[in-house]
Description:
single chain; 472 residues; alpha/beta; Rossmann fold; UDP-N-acetylmuramoyl-L-alanine:D-glutamate ligase; Protein-Tyrosine Phosphatase, Chain A; 7-stranded mixed beta sheet; 6-stranded mixed beta sheet; 15 helices; globular
Amino acid sequence: MRISQLDGQRVALWGWGREGRAAYCAIRSRLPALPLTLFCSADEAIDAASLGDSNLAVSTTVDGDALSNFDIVVKSPGISPYGEAASQAASAGVRLIGGTSLWFGEHAGDDGVVANTVCVTGTKGKSTTTSLLAHLLRSASRRTALAGNIGLPLLEALDPRPAPDTWAIELSSYQTGDVAASGARPAVAVVLNIFPEHLDWHGSHARYVDDKLRLVTGAHPRIAVLNAADPILSTLNLPDDVAVRWFGDARGWHLREDMLYRGDEPVMDTRGLPLPGRHNRGNLAAVLTAIEALGIDARPLAKAAFDFKPLPHRLQTLGEREGVTYVNDSISTTPHATLAALDCFADRDVAVLVGGHDRGLDWSDFAAAMRTRAPKAIVTMGANGPRIHALLAPVAAEAGFDLSEASDLRGAMTRAREALQRAGATSPVVLLSPGAPSFGVWRDYVDRGRDFARRAGFDPESISAIPGIGII
């Protein structure tokens, strides 16, 4: 859907965060006189009123009846379409879309394809992968936009001049359906992996998988780049008009131990890459496959990965204080991500902090893994901390790792240091890898990571900047 198609429609905006404000500005750039209604919080209403827009009505009360007065509601990504108000409005014929849908509609060519776009999604690793993609493309002197869920709403880059050569776009599971709903086709769509996540937003694991996969099943990308090692992706049937390129497969880009291969050709040793965890080094294969899908020779670009600057809050080593190394993996919001983080420090004495907002994820696989892969200590915290603690208690008694619980981050860090001291750790690491969202205590995972850094004695400002966002 193009923004011009909103003209003559009854249109509302739902949400006034950065995405909501970007949608407002984009619509006003095309349709300055279109009547709009904004549904937002009381504090946000004050900010919206300061715009002085006589064609903008603001309401702090939203329910299904209120939404049903509109033809189209442009909602912010964090608002689930499966909630009561949204479901009631959809049943009444209201079309709920996101800003991502409008951006793709604006940029589709006559054939429906949004040229030179690479969309990246996956349960873990998508931000690092999208940033690495932009970095390698820029190393080939291609002007590249790094945007989307990573921190720059697409509608903030609606009409860049000059236009970039390539778009590297990160999409969350909240946004993949918007691409499908736009009617436009990405040039390339990358899906890295699928694990249970965001069940509170999607309502079930099955719906999460369906929503995540809509990027390739519903948006009909020209080329889908998929992980051959993922059990869900490896058996996926896609529409006939979607070509598939595999990574993690012996016929394409893949890792053998630490060596990166293109088919049977060894390309380079990946040891020493600034990519934390083997899963991220494996995702280099996804990036190179996507670059080839754009028609670019990826081989000479691979070595540029050694110059990549890692993203904050993703297995980020902050430094050492009083003999203890602190690692910030606040982006970790699933138990699978926590397991991956622990694998990266298997040769160190680790105390890991887990727990946060409880969205019903199953921690039984994590508990089972702790029978043979446990760190020195685990400290539980947050809303789901008691549930995780109860699950781990019998495992800790059997496997012999230190298990404790805390009511907040400060207490968790204290208990982690005490546990490492009791264990006589010689290479102690306090690892924040919660496996759960930050809602309820912090604004987001960035706020949580900054709090961790501050309490560990590091400057939160210096550790938070994401390099490369925007058009370079």
